[in-house]
Amino acid sequence: IFLVAGIGFFVLAFIVSAWLPMLPVQDMEVKTVEQLAQDVPLDFVLLSEEYPEAFKGAFGDKADSAAFADALTRGHKIYVGEACWLCHSQQGRPWGGDEARFVLQAYPEEYQNELNMPPLWGTRRVGPDLSRLGGSRSNDWHVAHFWNPPDVAPWSVMPRYPWFFEDDGKTPNRDGLAIITYVQWLGSWQDNIDVSM
């Protein structure tokens, strides 16, 4: 009896926890990086103008959609690989003071693209939520922040990332340009979401 009940509860738990939550989202369209990169933001164009030699060596002569897609993909991989998501979540939660401290509650529509799958919800939440902060700081601010975070945020406990730079922190390299592009992109979808549900 206990064996049959245990197997039955396991199957029920699988259905309730794994299969049912997938039903509402299984037919959602997921945008590719190429689709996301069709509209090249001004921040990316400014990176190409502010650091022309580094940009040319990293992504080519033009700040077009192909270069933007390349930078986004690389920046996302760096963001995940450097474990930035541990301290900086990308999901505003509707509890625990998130809306007062960080950003408004996240909606499923925000995660309908390759760069938000899997969602990087964060665990420690030491730094601010980055899901909607893209474009709120200048490229130069991000350069200074990645080089030495306390220079622009004195209370920051974020480590330095000198391997994102050449010339003693004056010029971001390919990885530095890519991570800045990715962080500046976060939240760019905010104006395109209907949150009136």
What report would you give on this structure?
- The chain has 9 helices and 2 strands; from the N terminus they run ααααααααββα.
- The longest helix is centred in the N-terminal third of the chain and has 18 residues.
- With 197 residues, the protein is mostly helical.
- The chain is globular, with a radius of gyration of 20 Å.
- Helices cover 43% and strands 2% of the residues.
- Helix 3 packs across helix 4 and helix 5 packs across helix 9.
- The chain has a two-stranded antiparallel ribbon with strand order 1-2.
> Numbering strands along the chain, what is their spatial order in the largest sheet?
1-2
Q: Mean pLDDT across all residues, rounded?
A: 86
Q: What structural category arises from helix and sheet content?
A: mainly alpha
Main beta-sheet annotation: 2 strands, antiparallel
Helix content: 40-55%
Gross geometry: globular
Number of helices: 9
DSSP, total strands = 2
Order of helices and strands: HHHHHHHHEEH
Radius of gyration: 20 Å
Low-confidence stretches: 193-197
* Terminal residue distance: 46 Å
Beta-strand content bin: under 5%
In short:
This protein has 197 residues and is mostly helical. The protein has helices at residues 2-19, 33-36, 42-50, 52-59, 65-81, 84-87, 98-101, 139-147, 174-185, and strands spanning 165-166, 171-172.
Offer a few descriptive terms.
single chain; 197 residues; mainly alpha
List the helices and strands and how they pair.
Blueprint: H1 2-19, H2 33-36, H3 42-50, H4 52-59, H5 65-81, H6 84-87, H7 98-101, H8 139-147, E1 165-166, E2 171-172, H9 174-185
Antiparallel strand pairs: 1-2
